[in-house]
Amino acid sequence: MSATSRTTVPALRLAVKCSSGNTLSTLLSTSSLQSSSSSSFPSSCSTKEVISVRYICNTTKPTMAKESGGLSYYLSSLRKSALEMLTSDLAPEERTNLLSRLNAVDASEAQKVEQKSIGEAVAEAVAKETQKNTSLWEKEKNILAQQAEKAAQERVMSDLAVQRRMLGLERWKKELQLQEEQEQKVKDQQQQQQQQGENDTRVNGASAQSTNKTKEEQNVIDHDHHPILGEVILDLGYKRIYAASAKNLASIPVWERQRVYRHERAKVMATEKRKSLELGLPGIITLHEASNGQLSILDGQHRVGMMAILQSKISSSTAKTGNAADEALNLDRVLVEVFPDKNDSDSSTTATTNTSLASDVFTEINKAEPVKLVDMPGIAKKSDRRIIDDAASMLCKSYPDMFKPSQRCRAPHLNVDNLRDALFAADVLQRHSIRSHHDLLVWIEEKNAEMRSIYASSGDDDNVDGASTAMKNVSKTALNKAIKFDFFLGLDSSWLYK
Fold first, then answer.
1. Residue 230 and residue 228: Cα distance in Å, rounded?
2. Cα 313 vs. chain centroid, distance in angstroms?
3. What confidence tens digit (pLDDT) does each residue in 254-286 have?
4. Is-contact 241 286, C-beta < 8 A?
5. What is the pLDDT of residues 137-147, one digit of tens each?
6. Do residues 440 and 391 lie in contact, with contact meaning Cβ atoms separated by under 8 Å?
7. Prior bond of 400 cis (ω within 30°)
């Protein structure tokens, strides 16, 4: 399908801004739009509370392109549109403050600096899988567009909820400081007063006002309740424990230095988990909370992806059969640990401290796990890792039959993460002065051609017994498959060092 072949989401977005500060948003089909009324609004937003209703037509919405690059840009554009919509009714100063906290950028830059949430990554992966079947793509592209929009909006609403909480906490701290200053002034005045009766009346009145105001603020800002994670189960100081829903976890982005989310791996995990639902969810999801309140997944991204897949399958199965047997797996209470950054400064030191804490926790978690060297914080340059990641991803797309999700795959197959790590460990970029993913891909294809010249002649003779020393460990089955798909890099790793 050409780059100009696009489709719009057949829906209108209804965003309702309430006096309570809540923004409610829902998708309405064009046919149901006229029948919608205030009675269809959630009970938390009555007709009297409605300040404004904003309709955004299809023609102004970003569109889903069938190219893989277009999907990433599409998600970024959806996120930007949702952010603009959900903050459109705020006062200019409040909106600017909120957007600056979210590091909001232009849509063209968003895909470069923004980490996708798991929900967005799942939506993008499902869309890419569907694109492989043209008839299925034409049938389901509108549904996929709505799923992508929902994931992007949930991501934005999650970020907004966190930042509104942080703003509320800051206001509460300022009010508390002001209250303490006022109380100190009252005490100072008390010492200077000569008439005790008159002084008592004044002091009691001021104290009552301060106490009432403090209680009101505490009702608005609940320190033990997080808008995304819920109630704190245990606060150990250096970390907090929550029981959060899988749905909310899917709206949280992955830490910027975390390994790339692999949807194929999450699908395998989901398939296996359906066979052992009675075991529940062993382990814990680890998050980092920056000093500005932003959350990111340090460990457990594929488990969160697995839960998103399971939740979708369970909902679909329940809707069709009414069988709720899979509810043995409680996806509304998933154990989560949060490591908060304690630095309250707004200087560049804060970003450094945030990165340092996240890196330290990530490294500590993965010391006992087979994390790849290229993914270890501070080991590979960010630019080098991007080149390797992009080239490996493009190679995987060019030879999909020769790549397996398991890191223990057998020849002639490769695993994309093993390939990434091997390219880094062999110092290919430096040894061959490679500066872009395109150049790296060209170099890899050249090595594949060299490997073809070594192995293909043996396959033509249908005999590997007389092959060279390098070929004696290659099975006939592996060699035949390599020849069939014209991919020889998985037969041995000697090409990395030539």
1. 6
2. 20
3. 888 777 788 888 999 999 888 888 888 888 999
4. no
5. 666 767 767 77
6. yes
7. no
The residues, ordered by sequence, that sit 6+ positions from 469 with a Cβ below 8 Å of its Cβ are: none
pLDDT digits (tens, 9 = 90+) for 391-427: 999 999 999 999 998 888 999 999 999 999 999 999 9
Q: What is the spatial distance between Cα 81 and Cα 83, in angstroms, rounded to a whole number?
A: 5
Report, as an integer, the average pLDDT of 23-28. Answer: 34
Cα–Cα dist 192/186, whole Å: 10
Q: Which two tokens stand for residue 138?
A: 């034409």
Q: From its phi and psi, is residue 58 left (phi > 0), alpha (psi between -120 and 50) or beta?
A: alpha
SS3 of the chain: the string is: CCCCCEECCCCEEEEEEECCCCEEEEEECHHHHCCCCHHHCCCCCCHHHEEEEEEECHHHCCCEECCHHHHHHHHHHHHHHHHHHHCCCCCHHHHHHHHHHCCCCCHHHHHHHCCCEHHHHHHHHHHHHHHCCHHHHHHHHHHHHHHHHHHHHHHHHHHHHHHHHHHHHHHHHHHHHHHHHHHHHHHHHHHHCCCHHHHHHHHHHHHHHHHHHHHHHHHHCCCCEECCCEEEEEECCCCEEEEECHHHHCCCEECCCCCCCCHHHHHHHHHHHCCCHHHCCCCCEEEEECCCCCEEEEECHHHHHHHHHHHHHHHHHHHHHCCCHHHHCCCCCEEEEEEECCCCCCCHHHHHHHHHHHHHHHHHHHCCCCCCHHHCCCCCCHHHHHHHHHHHHHHHHHCHHHECCCCCCCCCCECHHHHHHHHHHCCHHHHCCCCCHHHHHHHHHHHHHHHHHHHHHHHHCCCCCCCCHHHCCCCHHHHHHHHHHCCCCCCCCHHHHC
Domain range annotation of the chain: 1-157, 169-222, 224-369, 382-497
- Residue 287 β-bridge partners: 297, 338
